[in-house]
Amino acid sequence: MKKLLTVLCMTLISLLVNAQEIILPLWEGIPPLQKDMGLEEKAVEEGIIRIENVQIPQIEVFLPSKQMRTGQAVVIFPGGGYHILAYDWEGRDFAKWLNTQGIVGIVVKYRLPDSKSLTDAKEVPLLDAQRAVRLVRHHAEEWKIDPARVGVLGFSAGGHLASTVSTQYAQEVDRQKDAVDALSARPDFSILAYPVISFRDASAHSGSRKNLIGENASQELIDRFSSELNVTAETPPTFLVHAQDDGGVPIQNSLLYYDALNANKVPASLHIYPKGGHGFGFGLGKGPVSGWRDVLLDWMVDLK
Does residue 39 lie in a domain region? Predict the structure, then answer.
């Protein structure tokens, strides 16, 4: 028995030692669409870590042990209404859980559009999201990732960003480019948890819309950032999860996106639970919704 316990302990220690964490800036020097104003990022821990006023966008990479790696990677966009990032609850915690499944988890600390240092705020989150996907592919060989198995995951407003990069991955802004830009920003799959999708009518999450495109946005801008209107046959396969009693972001957001995916014959899996509210994360202690991660894993295994 002692020998068995020793072997088990050594195995666990080996797995922990082999798991790695890497932090990389998205951009070299001052990021595009930003001016140096000497502003500082703010992080507040009140039960969860909330990050505001991001000035140096980055990815935090969580690598599973070498023995467990599947080749899949998930780029994670925490939510927070485009005002803050719920960085651990909808970021690090999920990346670490993905590691237990042999999946590389990458948390994106993306810039938020209410920062005064940005020169074209509405374009910045998408620009950072595209860069994150490309940067993961740039390091695919080093991190033992299959570059054709890189997906995105977004929660709430992070779900809006994930759906935006899934539908506008080829969108460009005028900026200096480098070797990373030669890689595709199209995700291979998309996971959207209680996502903001539409900026139109009653479905809109007013806080996210105001923070990203302003109170008096034109109809053209509203439509451009309503992801259900931008789905094509090239949009990646998508998994959606939402709670029917979500009082923050109505389930109509997921329904609209699912209908658009279906109309364009894009493989889609929609899961609506009667209870869970908004921001349920792992769903622990919230009844049946706590099982959504198991359903997600089955879906990820079946991806072609």
Answer: yes
269 three-state secondary structure: strand
Q: Which residues contact 260 (CB under 8 A, 6 or more apart)?
A: 227, 228, 229, 231
Looking at every residue in the chain, the average pLDDT score rounds to 93
CATH of residue 230: 3.40.50.1820
Q: Is residue 3 part of a domain?
A: no
CB-CB contact of 157 with 208 (8 Å): yes
C-alpha to C-alpha distance for 180 and 198, rounded to whole angstroms: 30
> What are the tens digits of pLDDT across the range 158-167?
999 999 999 9
Long-range contacts of 253-257 (CB under 8 A, 24+ apart): 253/195, 253/196, 253/197, 253/198, 253/203, 253/205, 254/192, 254/194, 254/195, 254/197, 256/197, 256/198, 256/203, 256/228, 257/163, 257/192, 257/195, 257/197, 257/227, 257/228, 257/231
Give residue 218's pLDDT: 95
Token couple for 92: 């690090």
CA atoms within 13 A on the CB side of 277: 9
Report how far residue 32's alpha carbon sits from residue 270's, in angstroms, rounded to the nearest whole number.
Answer: 36
Tell me, yes or no, whether 83 lies in a domain. yes
pLDDT at 14 over 90: no
pLDDT above 60 for 192: yes
Is residue 136 a contact partner of residue 145, using CB atoms and an 8 Å limit? yes
Structural domains counted in the chain:
1
Domain ranges, residue 48: 21-302
Q: Is residue 8 in some structural domain?
A: no
Distance between CA 247 and CA 279 in Å, rounded? 10
pLDDT surpasses 70 at 234 = yes
- The answer to pTM > 0.90 is yes
